[in-house]
TrEMBL record:
Subcellular location: Membrane
Transmembrane listed as a keyword: yes
The protein's name in its UniProt record: Metalloprotease
Residues in the signal sequence: none
Species name: Spongiactinospora gelatinilytica
Pfam family, any one: Zn_peptidase
Keywords: Membrane, Transmembrane, Transmembrane helix
Principal subcellular localisation of the protein: membrane
GO cellular component: membrane
Length: 259
């Protein structure tokens, strides 16, 4: 009978459907491309982090009055820049209806031990502590602008944190690939903020980012979590040229742009 045949089909196909779902689940776990297709991974335009309201805001107002000789007193320069960054991000977030709160503190430290987190870690130039929402920059007296860019990068992490742009609602996977999208976005947003503060110095930072590449172990580990030198330079270039948060949407970028 027809009805029985249908039941038979349904019974036989149910286990098959379950197996398919399991395979798809496993593939989705192991193959990012399939996660992309399902719309739940970073890189998918439908993932939460890729469709944030901040992506349609106008260019970040990149303006700052700084001491004439920025290298003379780097602390003074960085404190002035911090106030500018607060103003820039206040204005930028306001256009999307977000209220900006400055970081709880901006620590300009001589050694990692004086930072409010990451004291045990070596080799960082700046660090953002999401728990205390504090920005930390390790002072390097050689060239003020490099510390300025680091400050802008850590501020970008703060904006990612308070706006929810980094909470990665589209994916529950927090791995190295996730870290690269977060870090490259911070590079791009830092460049957007700094693009009119000193375009020449910013171009030098971009060139330095693109040529960095000593293939030692520490650098290899850094690239895994922060992206390749080529991609870092490319995202800095996007922020530099376009100046918008939307130009910095690493969460919707294909894998090869965030490797
Ligand atoms: Zn970072």
């Amino acid at each position: 009978m027809v009805v029985d045949e249908k039941r038979g089909v349904i019974r036989r196909s149910l286990p098959a459907a379950a197996v398919f779902a399991l395979v798809l689940g496993a593939l989705a776990f192991f193959y990012p491309d399939i996660r992309d297709a399902l719309g739940t991974a970073p890189g998918s335009p439908r993932s939460g982090a890729a469709t944030h309201a901040l992506y349609s805001t106008p260019p970040v107002p990149s303006r700052c009055e700084l001491p004439d000789d920025r290298d003379e007193d780097i602390r003074r320069t960085l404190n002035a820049l911090a106030r500018c960054l607060d103003r820039m991000w206040t204005a930028s977030l306001r256009t999307a209806g977000y209220h900006y709160e400055p970081p709880s503190e901006v620590n300009l430290v001589e050694t990692p031990g004086d930072a409010s987190c990451g004291q045990g870690d070596e080799g960082w130039a700046g660090i953002y502590c999401p728990e205390s929402r504090s920005v930390n920059v390790l002072l390097d007296a050689s060239w003020a602008f490099s510390d300025m860019f680091t400050l802008a990068h850590e501020y970008a992490h703060h904006v990612q944190e308070i706006s929810g742009i980094a909470d990665q609602r589209g994916s529950e996977i927090f791995d190295e690939a996730w870290s690269r999208r977060l870090e490259l976005q911070a590079d791009c947003m830092a460049a957007a903020a700094m693009r009119d503060v000193d375009p020449e110095a910013l171009a030098m930072v971009r060139a330095a980012a693109g040529s960095a590449g000593a293939e030692d172990e520490e650098w290899a580990a850094h690239r895994k979590t922060h992206g390749s030198a080529k991609n870092s330079a490319a995202w800095i270039g996007r922020g530099e040229r376009l100046g918008t948060i939307g130009a910095c949407n690493t969460w919707a970028a294909p894998e090869d742009q965030v490797s």
